[in-house]
Every structure is written in structure tokens, then in C-alpha cells.
Amino acid sequence: MANSNLPRRIIKETQRLLSEPAPGISASPSEENMRYFNVMILGPTQSPYEVYHINRSYV
């Protein structure tokens, strides 16, 4: 996480997210731009939300 243009809060929350992942949720910053996250949420099996992918950005 070497992006000095990011607000300190985003850096701190990203470090926490990576060190203390929430159950059923996988989130990681993009290697190209630390403001973009790739998120995967695992929901109930055999439901439309069994695997849900999100690309999220922080501007």
C-alpha cells in the first residue's frame, strides 16, 4: 500500500480490512489504483446472491 495520495483514513481502514476480514466478504484494493476495490460477498447457497462481485471506488 504505497500510495501517498490516499487520505490517511482510507489507508488505515484498508489495512484493517486486510488484517481483519469480515466473514463471507473478501475485499482487496486494485494493484493499479488503491482507490478501487474488488469485493466478493458470499451469500446463501442456491440464491441469486450466492457469489456477488462488486467493484467499488473511493474518490
Automatic annotation (TrEMBL):
UBC core domain boundaries: 5-59
Pfam families associated with the record: UQ_con
PROSITE patterns for the chain: UBC_2 (PS50127)
The name this protein goes by in its record: UBC core domain-containing protein
Biological source species: Erythranthe guttata (Yellow monkey flower)
